[in-house]
Amino acid sequence: MNAAVRAVVRMGIYVGAKVYFIREGYQGMVDGGEENIKEASWESVSSMLQMGGTVIGSARCKEFRSHEGRLKAAHNLVQRGITNLCVIGGDGSLTGANLFREEWSGLLEELVQQGLIDEDAVQKYSALHIVGMVGSIDNDFCGTDMTIGTDSALHRIIEVVDAIMTTAQSHQRTFVLEVMGRHCGYLALVSALACGADWVLIPEMPPEDGWEEKMCQKLSTLKECLGFDTRVTILGHVQRGGTPSAFDRILASRMGVEAVIALLETTANTPACVVSLCGNQAVRLPLMECVQMTQEVQKAMDEKKFEEAVKLRGRYSHITNHCSGFSNFNIAVLNVGAPAAGMNAAVRSAVRVGISEGHKMFAVNDGFEGFYKGQIKEIKWADVGGWTGQGGSLLGTKRTLPAKHVEKIAEQMRAHNINALLVIGGFEAYLGLMELLEARGKYDEFCVPMVMVPATVSNNVPGSDLSIGADTALNAITDTCDRIKQSASGTKRRVFIIETMGGYCGYLASVGGLAAGADAAYIYEEPFDIRDLQSNVEHLTEKMKGAIQRGLVLRNENSNENYTTDFIYQLYSEEGRGVFDCRKNVLGHMQQGGAPSPFDRNFGTKISAKAMLWLTKKMNETFRQGRVFANTEDTCCLLGMRRRALVFQPVVQLKDETDFVHRIPKEQWWLKLRPLMKILAKYKTSYDVSDSGQLEHVVRNIQPKESDPSGAM
């Protein structure tokens, strides 16, 4: 919530508005007074990004539910000339805001009759405009894929689960964990996916009669008898606290800026709206349509119409046995390129979905290098147990490309009768798949369906807005920047120069900068010269003379061959002499390591499952005369997140979108976030509103959405 508050305040000041904090929610609006409704300054939201909860407070207010309470609130707002409200909360808070808006004219008339305001005030403040942002860890609000706070709650759950798993394995114990979420099973379902739970119970899908026996049968595959030592852990309010994740900071910052733009564009006839997220896209939806849909879900739940409730939510992914036609194909899975957190979750998902589809799964060790050396063997269901939370690549991964070894790889394909390939990796995987596609003309063994799932911390694969591993790297950068900034608290003014990975792709530096509250981020995609560096130093010098005591500058490792991290550090040190001193840090491979974030586990699990179902479909479509023969372009694809959906794209069609020299896509969506970072760092810059959300309507879902609920940033 603090990231959203910070973004609204700074974007509001940027566009020339007066911005006020209303403390303790509607209670502060009803009570009024200088302490409860206070003008915000730029500096008043400094150092907020890394703080959990909300610094302006939040409280339930019975008084606001009464007409008299809302009358007091209206009077307090009119006294300060406030006619635009940005409300961050759940469906109750947003419903209350809409009722307040509908009553506004009548409330002003009452205030005139009571002699508290005059007719001029009624004319001047005739309309109240409202924009909502959904802040709830439950993710139970219809109309948005992710609510502010949900990802951070998942982080807290997974941290606890990972810690408990070691105890469970050491003592052969079974643990039953209770998570929050009220009537919505999102936290339970996604954390179950992310930690590889054996069983999950959610309100939308209550267990059928006899579920106890089924669960015992499932668990008995682990032990011969069920004399398990069982422990119950109730996580409780641990899930609400702690430092917000990188995802939540970016989501809240984007939504906060979007909310201000929506308020600027609203008219007296515009309905109150909610700014939300669909896939990777910011959208605006009528507030009451979302609230009504959310209430319909609750009504369906109360009436035990669970299937209807799931359809109305539209967020749950169902992976069922899609096996139709011929099964028992052989599928090989391999990792290619540098390791990325979440790769193991993707492999586990592929193996288990493949086996449940009736196929035989083969694991290739050490990428294409292991493939041509014959490092390939069948992998069973139990072999991938516990892989979800493991970092790196348990299969092993190399950067070797297949072109020089296609003959030997073809021999291995023939020897193991491989009918399809799943390649999980980064830019090398993309290049490798194109080389195998080219080899189809010479070797029939490559005339099989092939699909690539992007997995790289650099997030530089064409055809996908997001890659497995990038979220974990962003969290590593954000956590480190938080600690580095904290190290300077209480000392003299200091600027930190941080170098991030990414090759020539500036995703980590730019989006990490937005999440960490950086003052500047230098990247290859946005050329800079000595004048830009000088301008940044002067800007920081000016800020440091005020209340700001810490500065943060990120630099992508390949942003410029001459303006190195050392050069920038020395320049800032010299030019800032007498005002601030400098420190530099090269984050290095810590960005590639560590346990995968809940987002990457979830994204890897789902995207890999979708890839396996596509392979099954393609193998059945191309099965002729006792063999699979696929030689068309659409049987060699990359599965990527594109704006609102997961899309299969032939790799041939992605050639024109690729800068092969610098190993990056020619167009990158996140570049539109850079002006946002600059505005929030107090730079005078133009903000492109062409990509802002337009008012849409809530779509009733007959089937679960194609868009991936975790694929958003």
Brief characterization of the structure:
It is built from 21 helices and 24 strands. It has 713 residues and is of the alpha/beta class. The longest helix is centred in the last third of the chain and has 24 residues, at 598-621.
Q: Which descriptors would you attach to this protein?
A:
single chain; 713 residues; alpha/beta; eight-stranded mixed β-sheet; four-stranded mixed β-sheet; 16% strand
Write the SSE topology.
Elements lengths: L1 H13 L5 E3 L2 H7 L5 E3 L27 H13 L4 E6 L1 H23 L5 H6 L4 E6 L15 H22 L1 E6 L7 H10 L15 H10 L8 E6 L11 H20 L7 E6 L2 E6 H16 L3 H8 L16 E7 L6 H14 L3 E5 L2 H6 L3 E3 L18 E2 L7 H10 L4 E6 L1 H12 L11 E5 L15 H17 L7 E7 L6 H10 L3 E3 L7 H15 L5 E7 L8 H11 L5 E6 L11 H24 L1 E2 L2 E2 L7 E7 L2 E6 L7 E2 L4 E2 L8 H7 L33
Parallel strand pairs: 3-4, 4-7, 5-6, 9-10, 9-12, 9-13, 13-14, 14-21, 15-17, 15-18, 16-17
Antiparallel strand pairs: 1-2, 7-8, 10-11, 19-20, 21-22, 23-24
Helix pairs in contact: 1-9, 2-3, 3-4, 4-10, 6-7, 7-20, 9-17, 10-11, 12-20, 16-17, 17-21, 18-19
